[in-house]
Amino acid sequence: DAKTTQPTSMDCAEGRAANLPCNHSTISGNEYVxxxxxxxxxxxxxxxxxxxxxxxxEMASLIITEDRKSSTLILPHATLRDTAVYYCIVRVAVKTxxxxxxxxxxxxxxxxP
Amino acid sequence: GAVVxxxxxxxxxxxxxxxxxxxxxxxxxxxxxxxxxxFPKQSLMLxxxxxxGSKATYEQGVEKDKFLINHASLTLSTLTVTSAHPEDSSFxxxxxxxxxxxxxxxxxxxxxxxTVV
Lengths: 113, 117
Description:
The complex is a heterodimer.
Chain A: E1 9-13, E2 18-23, E3 31-38, E4 45-50, E5 55-56, E6 61-64, E7 70-75, E8 84-92, E9 107-112
Parallel strand pairs in A: 1-9
Antiparallel strand pairs in A: 2-7, 3-4, 3-8, 5-6, 6-7, 8-9
Chain B: E1 4-7, E2 10-13, E3 19-25, E4 32-38, E5 45-51, E6 57-58, E7 67-73, E8 76-81, E9 90-97, E10 106-108, E11 112-116
């Protein structure tokens, strides 16, 4: 899997949009960008994923640059419950025997009242 | 959606004893399960990958005789920490992958906090 780099930590005011960047300059053509988050002392939670096009679901939006070398996860209206560590991971979506989720350090997002 | 149940959520054991952690896929068949370990303020570290009916594949640096993994059925995998010591105290998380969980492919358990005293 390609490596990713994310800022170590970020703050966001409650009610504002949280924009979490991720660089994945060595991403391969068949690799997707996945985002997970981990709230303290819980298991990781899937948020969203994408290949080329921007994606949106009930939790967040994912903006992927045209060259696919970076992406941004957007939480449109951050709440205190969004305080968590956010992990950006690139991997193929095909369930091969070699596919596994490897976590980097992630971004610790603190939503401030 | 796909649910993975992990038990116990917390366990305290004496040094030298063994502890078993269970990971169950509740509404899908988990062809592959993954076990992670997480120390405080660190990211998740993959320990091993297990396919149903096969021996687990351990990541470099993980002792297979200390962390016994059994994946005897498509819905259950267990991790046994043998002869536990205080340095094994950690947060252990399982993840299951199955054909029914769609393109996301992975569902994580809620984790087990192990404290060895």
